[in-house]
Amino acid sequence: MSLFELLKDYHKDYKLIGDYPLNIFNDVSAKYYENAGLDCVTLSCELSKKQLTTLCNTIPIEKELLVYGSLPVMTCAYCFLGKSNKCYPECPAYCQKSQKYYLRDRMGYEFRIIPDNIRNLSILYNSKITSIEFDDFNIDYARINILDENILEINNIIDTVRKGRKLSGKNYTNGNLNREV
């Protein structure tokens, strides 16, 4: 019996959803997770429009697509703030205050850093927010990931996604829809 089947036995009223880091790139991986007991899979954010369309039309398992959200680009087993905040050897958790931290690249793009002082990790998020139109895709669920948005922004995002549209501007990207992996 797989772990997923054990979880389903324990939580009969819940759906088990495989998140996008599982990298569902093809029908083989989708079938594997379906056989393992997942109810739904979140398709990889790295797929092109052509690949997503094909996958959405060929796999029988329920499909979820991230249509809005900040995506992690890197997880480091290192605290970026430890040296600058002089946290070592004991961590007073300065990073848990209400401040936001960013890493600026040579082009001036700012990548949000979220430190995890418990596991001594730092997660870097993309400098641009993914926002895509999804009407062309045969999906069961459209997913929104919220990171730093306020309530007014969240309501605008929900309204935009309900209409099947995307947010656009200098802070947004359509991810890999127009690129090949």
Task: Describe, in plain words, how this protein is organized in 3D.
Strand 6 (110-116) and strand 7 (121-125) form a beta hairpin. The strands form 2 sheets. Strands 1, 2, 3, 8, 9 and 10 form a 6-stranded mixed sheet that branches. A 4-stranded antiparallel sheet has the order 4-7-6-5, with no helix packed on it. It is built from 5 helices and 10 strands, in the order αβαβαββαβββββαβ. The two termini are 34 Å apart. It folds into 2 domains: 3-69 and 129-173, no CATH class; 72-125, no CATH class. The longest helix is centred in the last third of the chain and has 12 residues, at 151-162. By secondary structure, it is of the alpha/beta class.
